[in-house]
Design a protein that fits this description.
With 690 residues, the chain is mainly β. It has three helices and 48 strands.
Length: 690
């Protein structure tokens, strides 16, 4: 009888469990199908009808993981599946869920607050989507949450104080949400478990809350590119004894740097650039033997060709560079640029064997470039520009086999005093990876050697204006197959443009202004079909403008002014579809301007002044809707001023002086409200304009 009762009891027990399991399984399946119904695009068929279907157990659906007992959904990972749509609030019904990863998709709309019902959730990843709206305060109910990543979305509002109520939170990534503003919640300082706090590239303001110094387990803090103000906590190493990554660059922090960095013994990366720090650099930084990245300056090269820097807030650190910083053997990146640091670089004893990137530009450093720099054999990027460095450029820089970028401009560096050629260029040609070489505004006083051709496999930018370069442009320049920018303006170069120039087939910008070059413009230059800028002004170049210039479909800037050109202007030159500026002034060009010239939508500047051009002004110039500057002065143009010039609503300057133009001054010119400079003098015009 007892055995029979026991059997009935067990039967009822397992029966009830089966009923409960079936109902809860149905809840999970319904939640998943509701999530699927909110997906508008599934290009990879990740959760298609052949995959996520009620005809097979949902625990076998793509991205779904269930527990071993109870068949409940424990994890949902649909990252990197190119899904589009909104996140269904029904996910809040997956009550056994511990991990949810929907990162790197294209979800839009808001984050459903129902996620706060997932009390077992430990990992929540929604990064790199298009999510909008506020961060739900209901997240605070996910009391087991350890990892929260919402980075790379379009979230707005502030960071909820409730995030600081998560007792087990170890990592918080909110970075790259550029619409999140306000301050850093002080409640985040209550979480002794927090190890990673990443809030970069947002609109946070205010100071760093003192409570954050309670985060004794903090390993990484990244507040880069915000508007954080105030000073750095003096005792930060005491509060964060385990800190390894401290990134606070591009903010508005000020005051002096803490002097007791020696307490941060595990620090690997310290980035404080582009703030308003002042004073000297503490030598205690030099005791950080694990340090790999040190950025106390600026490093924001943003232009198409990285020659100029984008200034924002800047540190004004002064004094000498502590010697022990230049001997941290673990350093891989050192940036102290755009400060007021002075003194000499160590001529010997420089010991940075692992250094890959060195930024010391825009300071007040003096002395020679230390030859020991070549011992840093891993160097990829060197910038010591805009200092007061003197002496010859060391030949042993040619030993840096990994070097890609070398900026030495705006110093007082010279070539080898014992050689008429720039022998350091021959040495550097051994750097087979060198892509960018910037030398401008140094008194190099030498010739470019034929060995320049040895850069053929790598060099993209050769920038050497105002260097007192002498002699001819070497014919070996034609070997630089990858060269995109060649800037040699403001030197003492003589001879002709070499015929081998046709070999520089990827050249985009070619500048040799203000030299003493002569001869003709070679037809071979027309093989450079990628040209966007071509400027030869203020030389002694003669002959004609090659007709093939009309084929430069990418050309944006052409300046041949102040030469000895004598031909007519190729008829379609100034209607190139990409041309924005055309300057042929101060030559001896002849012929007339074609009356049926096609209009240009992008041409902004035309300067044909001081030539021998005849004929009349084409009325079709009035169709050049982007034109802001037009000068035809000092020619032999006759006829009248076309009324259609009044259509040039953006015209800023019009100079038709010193011609033979006659008739009345069109009253319609009064409608050119942008016009600031108008010169019609020394013609045969009548009437007035107000």
């Amino acid at each position: 009888m007892f055995q029979k009762k026991k059997f009935i009891y067990l039967y009822l027990l397992f029966g009830l469990q089966f009923v409960y399991s079936s109902s809860t399984n149905f809840t999970d399946q319904s939640a998943l199908l509701a999530f699927k119904s909110a997906i508008s695009n599934d290009p990879e068929n990740s959760i298609s009808d052949t995959n996520w279907t009620s005809s097979k157990p949902f625990c076998h659906w793509n991205g779904v993981s269930c527990g071993k007992r109870g068949l409940r959904v424990r994890a949902l990972n649909l990252s990197f599946m190119a899904l589009e749509g909104s996140i269904s609030p029904h996910l809040g019904n997956l009550s056994f869920l511990t991990s949810l990863d929907l990162g790197n998709n294209s979800f839009h709309g808001g984050i459903p607050g129902e996620i706060g019902r997932l009390h077992r959730l430990r990992i929540l990843i929604l990064r790199f989507n298009n999510l909008e709206g506020h961060i739900p305060p209901s997240f605070c109910h996910c009391q087991k949450l350890q990892f929260l990543s919402l980075e790379g979305n379009r979230l707005s509002g502030g960071i909820p104080e409730e995030i600081g109520w998560l007792p087990r939170l170890g990592a918080l990534y909110l970075n790259s949400n550029k619409f999140i503003s306000g301050g850093i919640p002080s409640s985040l300082g209550n979480r002794s478990t927090l190890q990673i706090l990443s809030l970069r590239e947002m609109k946070l303001e205010g100071s760093i809350p003192p409570s954050l110094l309670n985060l004794s387990s903090l390993v990484s803090l990244d507040l880069t590119r915000n508007a954080i103000t105030g000073n750095l906590p003096v005792n930060l190493c005491h509060g964060w004894p385990r800190i390894q990554v401290l990134h606070l660059a591009f903010n508005q922090l000020g005051g002096h740097l803490p002097s007791n960095f020696s307490g941060c013994k595990d620090l690997v990366s310290l980035s404080l650039g582009y703030n308003s720090f002042e004073g000297t650099i503490s030598s205690e930084i030099g005791t950080l033997q694990k340090l790999q990245v040190l950025n106390l300056g600026g490093n924001n090269l943003t232009l198409k060709f990285p020659l100029l820097r984008n200034h924002r807030e800047m540190n004004t650190l002064s004094g000498d560079i502590p010697r022990n910083i230049l001997n941290i053997s673990s350093l891989e990146m050192l940036s102290l640029m755009q400060n007021s640091l002075s003194g000499n670089l160590q001529s010997d004893g420089l010991s940075l064997p692992n250094l890959e990137m060195l930024f010391l530009g825009d300071n007040k450093l003096r002395g020679n470039i230390p030859s020991s720099l070549s011992n840093s054999s891993n160097l990829v990027h060197i910038d010591v520009a805009t200092n007061f460095l003197t002496g010859p450029i060391p030949l042993n820089l040619g030993n840096l086999q990994h070097l890609r970028y070398l900026a030495l401009h705006r110093n007082h560096l010279t070539g080898d005093p014992g050689s008429p050629e720039l022998s350091f260029l021959t040495a550097l040609s051994n750097c087979r990876s060198l892509e960018t070489l910037i030398l401008h505004s140094n008194p190099l006083k030498g010739r470019i050697p034929e060995s320049i051709g040895n850069f053929s496999s790598s060099l993209r930018i050769f920038y050497a204006p105002d260097c007192q370069l002498q002699g001819h442009i070497p014919s070996a320049i034609g070997s630089l197959k990858k060269l995109a920018l060649l800037e040699l303006s403001g030197n003492d170069l003589t001879g002709n443009i070499p015929l081998t120039i046709e070999g520089v087939e990827m050249l985009q910008e070619f500048h040799v202004n203000d030299n003493k070059l002569g001869g003709l413009i070679p037809e071979e230059i027309c093989y450079l079909r990628q040209l966007t800028e071509l400027t030869f002004q203020n030389n002694k170049i003669s002959g004609s403008i090659p007709a093939c210039f009309e084929d430069f479909s990418h050309l944006q800037i052409l300046s041949l002014s102040s030469n000895r050109l004598r031909s007519s202007i190729p008829p379609n030159l100034w209607t190139l579809k990409s041309l924005r500026s055309l300057n042929l002034s101060f030559n001896s060009l002849t012929g007339y301007l074609p009356l049926n010239v096609k209009s240009s939508l992008v041409l902004e500047r035309i300067d044909f002044s001081s030539n021998h051009i005849t004929g009349t002004i084409p009325s079709t110039i009035g169709d050049f809707e982007s034109l802001t500057f037009l000068s035809l002065s000092r020619n032999s143009i006759h006829g009248h001023i076309p009324d259609k010039l009044s259509k040039l609503k953006g015209l800023d300057s019009l100079d038709l002086s010193y011609n033979n133009i006659s008739g009345s001054i069109p009253k319609s010119l009064e409608t050119l409200h942008s016009l600031k400079h108008l010169n019609l003098s020394f013609n045969q015009l009548s009437g007035e304009i107000s």
